[in-house]
Amino acid sequence: MGRPPDPARRERTLARATDYVLGHGLAGLSLRPLAAALDTSPRMLLYDFGSKQELVSAVLAEARRRGAARLAEHLPPAAASPEERLRGIWAWISAPERAPYVRLIFEVHADGLTHPENYPGQAEAITGWFDTLGAAFRSVSTGPDDTVTPTLVMAVIRGLLFDFTTTGDRDRTDRALDRFCALLQP
């Protein structure tokens, strides 16, 4: 009889694997170096997650969960204006300590365009933010089922984030956010 599953060990391994991927990225991820960094074996990783792809999917879901939870903690209050909320999101997501998340987001998006089979949850990674963003921008939305406003906000933030991450030009990207905020004014 084999060893019974240990959910607590799997969760600890998932937390550490997520930290590893945030620090090293997914490109060239191999089970042997990952297992060595986590003080386990490739065999145990496969035992706990079933396959490398399942491990990667779990890591990406955990990274998204962490990001969403941390963003929710740092959003300006519901009474804040859309502009204040947008500026709060931008300040939080573009902060230097979020760089590992940002790199992972863009790495997954880029690789997912070429290899969508590797990221079956890619669309959910984008649309999963609709509830958070929809609530944050309810005063400028068209109704409770509005997905256009969160799509637009996410597209602007993602575009500015890609620009800022690539160029390092904080001043210009902040001014572009200012312009977008002005467009949100009634």
Shape: elongated
Class from helix and strand fractions:
mainly alpha
User: Helix and strand succession?
Assistant: HHHHHHHHHH
Rg from Cα: 19 Å
Number of domains: 2
Q: How far apart lie the N and C ends?
A: 67 Å
How many E strands?
A: 0
Instruction: Supply the number of helical segments.
Output: 10
What's the story with the biggest beta sheet?
A: none
Mean pLDDT: 86
Contiguous runs where pLDDT drops below 50 for at least 5 residues: none
Strand content: under 5%
Q: What is the share of helical residues?
A: over 70%
Question: What can you tell me about this protein's structure?
Answer:
- There is one protein chain.
- By secondary structure, the chain is mainly α.
- The protein folds into two domains: 1-73, Tetracycline Repressor, domain 2 (Orthogonal Bundle); 75-186, no CATH class.
- Helix content is 71%, strand content 0%.
- Helix 8 (130-136) crosses helix 9.
- The protein starts with 6 loop residues before the first helix and ends with a helix.
- The mean pLDDT is 86.
